[in-house]
């Protein structure tokens, strides 16, 4: 057993023992310091005829958790890698490039889109790169395999008129506050789920959220959002610290699925002929900002994108706007 593998296993066990309350980065640092002057070798046991794929997947996921990968991302990695392990049934060092190609071809036959195959490939690439870095294998079998690019499609944001239709469809303080909070901040669903009442700086109309990769960023609320959020908070009688909570006792934080159901209700009562969901509001906010002249870097920072090319996907520019910009800048 390699020393780093021992560290990952120890931190993983401690995290389970302390019910997820362990500071994994600090624990890892301490254990590494203690083991620095020691050689760590596995105990010799009788040979067991069983592949090591599942064991290495668990180690990989434990390592990524220590690195701060979000729980939902880890769950996605786990599903994909376990599906791969079930198909492959080999030791990691025996997996070949042809094995990977055959697996991806088999997965493609299930009817999934190119983007899904691309995601699957990227997850496998990360896993085998880690195996290579940790010297479990000599060379990743995915070195010669390229990721499939997702089908390009124009993302259609809601128009200003459609946003007004949704506002008219909101029947409760909570629905109005939710809609305006998503639209003004551009937050992801999991970010909104974890916002606390005291997170909001009412003087500066801003707050900090924890996004993907446990990275903190500042987002902003506008005057309309402020009015509706404060009305919602004033109508509440509970002491729960979460910004959005359930309506029935015992009052608790409003979860992801409950937030999605609120948008389902808004869609139904508004009568709009489109599917309404939280990410569409985030996309709409970004598109409206870009179409109003905000620069790509600013929108990228607000959305929490590391890659500007991802932000560019949100730029849904109307023909009217293109014509306006042409006539504004074209020398007559």
UniProtKB/TrEMBL annotation:
<keyword id="KW-0963">Cytoplasm</keyword>
<dbReference type="GO" id="GO:0005737">
    <property type="term" value="C:cytoplasm"/>
</dbReference>
<dbReference type="InterPro" id="IPR050090">
    <property type="entry name" value="Tyrosine_recombinase_XerCD"/>
</dbReference>
<comment type="similarity">
    <text>Belongs to the 'phage' integrase family.</text>
</comment>
<dbReference type="GO" id="GO:0015074">
    <property type="term" value="P:DNA integration"/>
</dbReference>
<dbReference type="InterPro" id="IPR010998">
    <property type="entry name" value="Integrase_recombinase_N"/>
</dbReference>
<dbReference type="GO" id="GO:0006310">
    <property type="term" value="P:DNA recombination"/>
</dbReference>
<dbReference type="InterPro" id="IPR002104">
    <property type="entry name" value="Integrase_catalytic"/>
</dbReference>
<dbReference type="Pfam" id="PF00589">
    <property type="entry name" value="Phage_integrase"/>
</dbReference>
<dbReference type="GO" id="GO:0007059">
    <property type="term" value="P:chromosome segregation"/>
</dbReference>
<feature type="domain" description="Tyr recombinase">
    <location>
        <begin position="153"/>
        <end position="327"/>
    </location>
</feature>
<keyword id="KW-0132">Cell division</keyword>
<protein>
    <submittedName>
        <fullName>Phage integrase domain protein SAM domain protein</fullName>
    </submittedName>
</protein>
<dbReference type="InterPro" id="IPR011010">
    <property type="entry name" value="DNA_brk_join_enz"/>
</dbReference>
<dbReference type="InterPro" id="IPR013762">
    <property type="entry name" value="Integrase-like_cat_sf"/>
</dbReference>
<dbReference type="InterPro" id="IPR004107">
    <property type="entry name" value="Integrase_SAM-like_N"/>
</dbReference>
<keyword id="KW-0159">Chromosome partition</keyword>
<feature type="domain" description="Core-binding (CB)">
    <location>
        <begin position="51"/>
        <end position="132"/>
    </location>
</feature>
<dbReference type="Pfam" id="PF13495">
    <property type="entry name" value="Phage_int_SAM_4"/>
</dbReference>
<dbReference type="InterPro" id="IPR044068">
    <property type="entry name" value="CB"/>
</dbReference>
<dbReference type="GO" id="GO:0003677">
    <property type="term" value="F:DNA binding"/>
</dbReference>
<comment type="function">
    <text>Site-specific tyrosine recombinase, which acts by catalyzing the cutting and rejoining of the recombining DNA molecules.</text>
</comment>
<keyword id="KW-0229">DNA integration</keyword>
<keyword id="KW-0131">Cell cycle</keyword>
<keyword id="KW-0233">DNA recombination</keyword>
<dbReference type="GO" id="GO:0051301">
    <property type="term" value="P:cell division"/>
</dbReference>
<keyword id="KW-0238">DNA-binding</keyword>
